[in-house]
């Protein structure tokens, strides 16, 4: 995840439902919650297995976990 020269927050969009916030950066990890479209996230770090990019994020409520960045459901707030 490359950090932009503008607002350093992400928005969940286009899921049709919600994006899973997971305990660890793998699909088999425990789901902490499901973030609905429109959720605002603060990016912290990126990691993940080959072929997938995961980002550790913090929600506006302070909950931290991992989301799939390479799945295409996040966009920078401009």
Description:
- The model has no long low-confidence stretch (mean pLDDT 88).
- Strand 2 (18-22) and strand 3 form a beta hairpin.
- The protein has 78 residues and is mainly beta.
- It starts with 9 loop residues before the first strand and ends with a strand.
- The strands form two sheets. The protein has a five-stranded antiparallel sheet with strand order 6-5-4-1-7, with no helix packed on it. The protein has a two-stranded antiparallel ribbon with strand order 2-3.
- The protein has strands at residues 10-12, 18-22, 31-36, 40-47, 54-59, 64-68, 74-76.
- Helices cover 0% and strands 46% of the residues.
- It contains no helices and seven strands.
Radius of gyration: 11 Å
Please estimate the helix content: under 10%
Overall pLDDT score: 88
| Major pleated sheet | 5 strands, antiparallel
Would you list the SSEs in sequence order as H and E?
EEEEEEE
Which band does the percent of strand residues land in? over 45%
Ranges where pLDDT stays below 50 over 5 or more residues in a row are none
User: Alpha-carbon distance between the termini?
Assistant: 16 Å
Label the overall shape.
Answer: globular
Q: Structural class of the secondary structure composition? A: mainly beta
Annotation field: number of helices: 0
Tell how many strands the DSSP assignment holds: 7
């Amino acid at each position: 995840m490359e950090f932009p020269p503008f607002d350093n927050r992400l928005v969940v969009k286009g899921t049709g439902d919600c994006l899973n916030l997971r305990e660890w950066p793998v699909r088999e990890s425990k789901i902490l919650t499901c973030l609905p479209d429109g959720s605002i996230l603060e990016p912290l770090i990126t990691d993940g297995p080959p072929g997938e990019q995961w980002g550790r994020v913090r929600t506006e409520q302070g909950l931290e976990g991992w989301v799939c960045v390479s799945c295409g459901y996040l966009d920078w707030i401009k």
